[in-house]
Amino acid sequence: MSNNFSMDGKVVVVTGAAGGMGTAITRTLVEAGARVVACDRAAEPLRELCGSLGDAAADVAGDITDPDTVQRMVSTAVERFGRLDAALNGAAIEFESVPLHETSDEDFELMMHVNVTSLFRCMRAEIRAMLAAGNGGSIVNIASTNSFKPQPNQPAYTASKHAVLGLTRSAALDYASSGIRVNAICPGTIDTPMLRNAIERRGRNPEEVAKRLSRFGRFGTPQEIADATLWLCSDASSFTTGHALAVDGGMLGA
């Protein structure tokens, strides 16, 4: 069996690490041998997560909309663990329930600030660290099935997730010659608090949503996103860059 999925000796930063998907991703990367710098604005859950992982994880509590938090996250990886090999950029928000003509400037700007501008800053800091080390690397951005197939009443979120793919593909083109791979994961209906809150906000039945948006008739699990992340961060995906991997129960493909 190939050992290309091993993350032994690799250092990874994870944003949104205390969320539903982020927690599963952080644990999976550590279990595969990585040392992880986990970042989230939810300080106490983040501290508990990293505490349960021992010396293999370091917590950086802060909001990624703050450029200082982004730099502190990347600096912690380099200063504490000596390098940066991979990154999972997963921090994002989604709160919409109205069509575009009812969307306020403030809501649109907030969505873009968190989901796009902050992602750009994270990628910039991560790429700079990887270029300085000269060992290549892998960056994985969390996009969405909305990047391809918008759902109703989510104009700003949909625009932001299209932008995530644009940043992913542009960076994949620019840094392939430096050995830095950049890919995206497009989750479908993954059973997280964010999804459950969105369903409740719209007054929908979770079982009906799962049947409508998944060919398996169920929600995906955070672990299924974590497994996809491990593949893209590891050497097992060494010939893959600029790719948007749908983990969506067949929503986009059928």
N-to-C order of helices and strands: EHEHEHEHEHEHHHE
According to CATH, what is the topology?
Rossmann fold
What is the count of β-strands? 7
The structural class is alpha/beta
Oligomer: single chain
The proportion of residues forming helix, as a percent range, comes to 40-55%
Distance between the termini: 32 Å
| CATH C-level | Alpha Beta
Looking at the overall shape, the CATH architecture is 3-Layer(aba) Sandwich
CATH level 4 superfamily: NAD(P)-binding Rossmann-like Domain
Number of helices: 8
Low-confidence stretches: none
Strands side by side in the biggest sheet: 3-2-1-4-5-6-7
Assign an overall shape: globular
Estimated share of beta-strand residues: 5-15%
Average pLDDT over all residues:
95
The description of the largest β-sheet is:
7 strands, parallel
